[in-house]
């Protein structure tokens, strides 16, 4: 089967000098905890994350890079990039938390591309976490649940705040 | 639904799925048009509305702003397609099951069928799409929009050489998520 079954990712993090990804994972064949440091060669302050990730995944450590959830990988690389651009670690961590925060009132059609990307990655992570796809235990093709005829105990409150005359 | 053929034409920010099915023992070819991020431009390209026979308008039940944006998207739809059936769905009920106990007035106000769905877990997704296809076919067979009537006349004129019916359905996302993740899920299965 795929790499996902050979190794179980436990932790991932960063080293700054030189910029490297650090992974702790269990090798399922030997059941041993391993640690791997992967230098981020050719990563610059102007590197495009998407392209860089694609390259990383096809390079020497590719199968290990693939273990890292995309949202987390983007976060780690963004922190390195911020550092290369002279930002303090604290400032970068704060910036990254902000990028990942989902505000139910924020119109994401109006934010910049980086913000949208980061928030989408957060939402994708939830999608993947709850996702049932063909082959998964408990997968059903057609799940019908009638919520419409359930008694509604409350209004959503989203209709009545007077902020929109259309409602 | 094994017949979906996802086709990504990123240059045109367009994602199309074709799906063959039957409605009342009649074979139907459905084109699903995914919004593919176009909502970023604050409106959809007019080609999205061209000859669409149904619309699924979706909001994220965990994010109020997407619900609040529905009137604007509906308004745009109605400028192009005043009469086509429109179905409304509250997505992400997996993230907060309590939303299914809450009522949302928008769909009722505009006389739309309403669905609580989870694209992630699959809840009511097939139901929503089946209903949308049925509504699209019913509308296409009995259009109330002037242009559609003309189109139907022309089609009848071209006669029964082409047996399959082409229906187009627009999947509008109200905004903000990766619309792909909503619609790819089931259709790919």
TrEMBL record, chain A:
One of its GO terms (biological process) is vesicle targeting, trans-Golgi to periciliary membrane compartment. Keywords: Cell projection, Cilium, Cilium biogenesis/degradation, Cytoplasm, Cytoskeleton. It is found in: Cytoplasm, Cytoskeleton, Cilium basal body; Cytoplasm, Cytoskeleton, Microtubule organizing center, Centrosome, Centriole; Cytoplasm, Cytoskeleton, Spindle. Pfam families: CEP19 (PF14933). GO terms for cellular component: centriole; centrosome; ciliary basal body; spindle pole. InterPro entries: CEP19 (IPR029412). Transmembrane segments: none annotated. The keyword Cytoplasm applies. It comes from the Eukaryota. Coiled coil: none annotated. Belongs to the CEP19 family. This is Centrosomal protein of 19 kDa.
From TrEMBL, chain B:
The keyword Metal-binding does not apply. Signal peptide: none annotated. It comes from the Eukaryota. Keywords: Nucleotide-binding. Residues 158-189 are annotated as: Disordered. GO terms for molecular function: GTP binding; GTPase activity. SMART domains: RAB, RAN, RAS, RHO. Residues 179-189 have a biased composition (Basic and acidic residues). InterPro entries: P-loop_NTPase, Small_GTP-bd, Small_GTPase. Belongs to the small GTPase superfamily. Rab family. This is Rab-like protein 2A. It comes from Patella caerulea (Rayed Mediterranean limpet).
């Amino acid at each position: 089967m795929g790499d996902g079954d050979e190794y179980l990712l436990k932790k991932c993090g960063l080293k700054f000098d030189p910029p490297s990804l650090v992974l702790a994972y269990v090798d399922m064949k030997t059941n041993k905890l391993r640690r791997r440091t992967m230098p981020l060669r050719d990563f610059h302050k102007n590197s495009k994350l998407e392209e860089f990730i694609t390259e990383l995944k096809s390079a020497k450590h590719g199968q290990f890079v693939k273990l890292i959830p995309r949202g987390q990988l983007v976060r780690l690389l963004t922190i390195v990039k911020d550092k290369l651009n002279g930002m303090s670690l604290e400032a970068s961590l704060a910036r990254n938390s902000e990028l990942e925060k989902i505000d139910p009132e924020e119109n994401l059609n109006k934010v910049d591309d980086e913000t949208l990307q980061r928030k989408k990655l957060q939402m994708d992570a939830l999608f993947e976490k709850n996702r049932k796809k063909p082959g998964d235990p408990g997968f059903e093709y057609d799940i019908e649940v009638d919520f419409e005829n359930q008694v509604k105990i409350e209004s959503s409150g989203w209709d009545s705040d007077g902020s929109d005359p259309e409602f | 639904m094994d017949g979906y053929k996802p086709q990504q034409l990123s240059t045109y920010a367009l994602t199309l799925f074709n799906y063959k099915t039957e409605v009342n023992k009649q074979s139907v070819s459905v084109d699903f048009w995914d919004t593919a991020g176009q909502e970023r431009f604050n409106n959809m390209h007019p080609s999205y509305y061209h000859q669409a026979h149904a619309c699924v308008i979706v909001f994220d039940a965990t994010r109020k702003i997407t619900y609040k944006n529905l009137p604007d998207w509906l308004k745009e739809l109605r400028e192009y397609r005043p009469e086509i059936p429109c179905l409304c769905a509250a997505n992400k009920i997996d993230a907060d099951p309590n939303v299914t106990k809450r009522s949302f007035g928008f769909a009722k106000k505009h006389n739309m069928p309403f669905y609580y769905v989870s694209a992630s877990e699959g809840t009511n997704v097939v139901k929503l799409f089946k209903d949308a296809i049925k509504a699209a076919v019913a509308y296409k067979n009995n259009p109330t929009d002037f242009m559609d009537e003309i189109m139907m006349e022309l089609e009848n004129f071209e006669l029964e050489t082409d047996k399959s019916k082409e229906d187009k359905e627009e999947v509008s996302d109200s905004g903000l998520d990766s619309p792909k993740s909503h619609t790819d899920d089931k259709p790919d299965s």
